[in-house]
Design goal:
single chain
């Protein structure tokens, strides 16, 4: 048995999160000690003690039961560091990662970084350097000795202090610079926000999906009431008292194009007419399923001045598409893409997923090469995240599936290299729990085609207004964020739409709509 115990002001939840990375979710006994089945008896104690000046001493010690005397624990591996008190939680995780990695021999590409946005660590490391130079200023510095030294120092800290692999450290650094360039358009105008409009309907449910999505073909009676509710919510939020303008609007899902054409048109136009748009606002439509795309819907999208279209095959292998529950073929993807081009869309994103069931490294790279032949303006490479509530979890997935798979890691690195060679560069990056091999999702784009919405939504520095069931709205004040979430249940959302309007108006400090 391996046990992990927190002492002092350590964060037990952080310890559980890190242990789950190696072993899956641990159990917790009545005393709050984490317990994990293991071939030998090991005890790990994590202790945090506050010191002077707001500092904190964090110590993680591994002890093994003495083989000759079962009542004795022999001290072993130890990590200790004094850090600022507000960094305690991350340090607790970092130390436990180091101890468990040495114990198990397992090392993850992102090391001890388990958060959604590893590029935030890059920015923080710049600030820690105290050189009075932002990442963007360093980038402009080109080959200057100072810029090169700071770049090397930040990447070195990611590798040395956080155990991030060299390829991922370099990816995080490059992406952080790109994100900062995109964010500058927002940070120069504090009255700009982004809007997410969600529709929880798809033609079918993918086996890896945990999203609460309805089958649009089987729930036709719910489509119109839902559309009416979203339009009502939009009108209520963006009525009198709303300050600012939307720099980007994203219609996501589910699959918005799973709506019948007349209802799709009413949905799009009914929502957009309420939103105050900034000049040149980015409008994105996620027409993710190629089998939901036709000329009539594309014309509606085009007529409403959408600048960006997403067509997401996930893979270009028909056998895999059938296995994961998609209702289209690789050929359907090519037809949908060609139709969109013919109608005039010149900013198209396409998604692929690495690590799908039954696919090997070469399968992924064949899909990447196929998309490169189509030459969309951006390609997002996800890694399969297996979530609770998905069909894959229902069938049972051994935790070893989430341990590093060198073939998969190598395939993702090769895919990144192919994208770079074809003129694409990473511009946003995020991670999810239970991702295969502990990998990431990275958006690549050609110059000038980075998505404003994607970067802003992930940044925690730009207000987000979410419409529709399950959406999240986020207000930003300095480095502080406040959130409200709409109900995920479809009927609850429809019944309580007025309540959601009131909550958002309160979040963004608008006067009551009834006045």
């Amino acid at each position: 048995m391996l046990t992990i115990e927190a002492a002092g002001c350590s964060d037990a939840a952080a310890l559980s999160e890190m242990a789950a990375l190696f072993f899956g979710p641990p159990s917790e006994n009545a005393g709050g000690v984490l317990e994990i089945p293991y071939e030998t008896d090991i005890r790990i104690l994590s202790e945090a003690v506050r010191t002077e000046g707001g500092m904190c001493c964090v110590t993680t010690e591994k002890m093994e039961r003495d083989a000759q005397d079962s009542g004795t624990w022999r001290p072993g591996d130890t990590e200790r560091r004094v850090i600022p008190g507000d960094e305690r939680r991350r340090e607790v995780k970092r130390q436990l990662y180091a101890v468990l990695s040495r114990e198990t021999g397992i090392g993850f590409p992102w090391g001890s970084l388990t958060g959604v946005r590893p590029t935030q660590i890059v920015v923080q490391e710049w600030e820690r350097a105290l050189l009075g130079m932002s990442p963007e200023q360093a980038r402009r510095g080109g080959r200057s000795d100072q810029a090169q030294r700071v770049c090397g120092e930040v990447i070195g800290r990611l590798i040395r202090d956080w155990y991030v692999s060299e390829p991922k450290a370099e990816l995080a650094f490059e992406t952080a610079l790109a994100e900062q360039r995109v964010l500058s358009a927002f940070l120069d105008n504090p009255h700009r926000s982004v809007v997410y409009v969600g529709l929880p309907f798809c033609p079918s449910r993918c086996s890896y999906c945990s999203f609460i999505a309805q089958d649009a073909r089987r729930h036709r009676e719910s489509l119109e009431p839902y559309v009416d509710a979203v339009i009502e919510e939009a009108r209520g939020v963006f009525s009198r008292g709303f300050h600012g303008e939307a720099a980007a609007v994203y219609f996501g899902g589910g699959t918005p194009t799973s709506l019948p054409p007349p209802l799709f048109k009413r949905y799009v136009e009914g929502v957009l007419e309420t939103i105050p748009l900034a000049p040149g606002a980015e409008l994105t439509m996620e027409a993710g399923r190629p089998d939901t795309i036709d000329a009539e819907k594309l014309e509606v999208i085009r007529e409403n001045r959408f600048t960006r279209l997403c067509i997401n095959p996930q893979t270009m292998h028909d056998e895999t598409l059938k296995a994961i529950g998609r209702g289209h073929s690789a050929g359907d993807t090519v037809k949908a893409f060609s139709l969109a081009r013919a109608i005039g869309f010149d900013d198209i994103n396409m998604d692929l997923i690495a690590g799908l069931p039954g696919e090997n490294a070469e399968d992924l790279l064949r899909s990447v090469r196929w998309l490169l032949e189509l030459a969309p303006e951006s390609i997002t490479l996800h890694t399969l995240a297996v979530k609770r509530g998905s069909g894959l979890i229902a069938r049972g997935v051994p935790h070893a599936l989430f341990h590093p798979d060198e073939a998969l890691i190598g395939a993702v690195e090769t895919a990144h290299a192919l994208l770079r060679q074809s003129g694409y560069a990473p511009y946003y990056l995020y991670r999810q729990k239970n991702c295969r091999s502990g990998l990431e999702n990275t958006g690549f784009a050609r110059d000038g085609y980075a998505s404003l919405y994607n970067v802003a939504m992930m940044s925690d520095r730009v207000p987000v207004i979410g419409l529709g069931s399950g959406s999240t709205s986020k207000a930003v004040s300095g480095r502080q964020t406040s959130r409200v979430c709409n109900p995920k249940d479809l009927l609850v959302y429809i019944q309580r739409v007025r309540e959601q309007i009131a909550r958002k108006r309160a979040l963004f400090h608008m006067e009551d709509v009834s006045r």
